[in-house]
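Incident review: delayed structure delivery

Summary: a single-chain prediction request sat in the queue longer than the usual turnaround. Root cause was a stuck worker, restarted by the on-call engineer. No data loss occurred. The affected request and its eventual output are reproduced below so the record is complete for anyone auditing the incident later.

Affected input:
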Amino acid sequence: MTAKHIHHFPTQTIRFQAIERPPELQGSVTALDTDGLGRIWIGVIGKEYAAIGAYDGNSWQHWQLNAGDITQQFVLFQNTVIRQGRTLHMLANDAWVPCGPPDPDDVIVSLCNQHDRALWAGTILNGLWFSPDTTSWTPIPQPSPIENALVHALACDPTGAILAAEVGTGLWGPHLIWRWADDSWQPLEPPPNRNFRCISTIIAPDSGDIWAFSFEGGLWHWDGMSWTHVNQPSQKANRIPSRGLSEFALAEAQDRVFVMSAQYGLLTRREGSWVRITSPDEVCSANERFYLHDGICGRIHTDERRLWIAGSTTTLHWANLEQFDQP
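Output delivered after worker restart:
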């Protein structure tokens, strides 16, 4: 129910459920996703270890990683977990097997599942790579010829075309998002705004729209014609700072977005105003900054039915998305 305002945001109280994580999966969550079988996957960093775990609705499985072999991202490819490190590793027969790209001294910075037909990987030293089967890899030219530019975010649109965002010391002003189709790169016209830069996440839903998220520049939406800075809807008072957003998720069926703000916690918007989400267990005060304890330091994710939040607590939180449509 939408009730009081916190700062300049209306609020909605949502009931979250908690799933306890085993000791082997306690720590800061660096990755969060669900597979086609309905399992939730998390990547975790502790003080002296890293691990990946999966929850099937009844129990947890977990896999320890080598000391220092921290995962910052993984993708699910044909219901197999592919995690990033220096080389990619896939989970096969309960063991992590290297699967490329070729240079073991390179570092993977972006990953993309192309509709379960291929994997794409952006690296620091050797640019962009493509693999139809995780065993053979083909280099793909970088979108721009600028030295030291690297692909920081990858996504696949409904047609199977690849979207790529670059970062680099030679890239100034608004950064481009490129589209790879018919074996060539074509740029999407960026907005005339310097905040459109250092894109870390791209989501391309079935609607054909594009969502671009940046830790430095906030949240942007492409409707096929132009970009809109979603941090700032028409109401002047209902604005989120461009800096300080740590996470973004899209509930595609509802056309609803979620962001984590360092200043305001969890917020959501479909049309109109941003709404701050509270929980019946949350003790709100005028000076309170965080939501769900330290969930702000973790990850948020949506599947067809649920919003998931995982931070550095001992639990995993989820809420039914239907609650957000209730008055």
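Verification: Residues 283-296 have pLDDT under 50 and may be disordered.
Action items: add queue-age alerting; document worker restart procedure.
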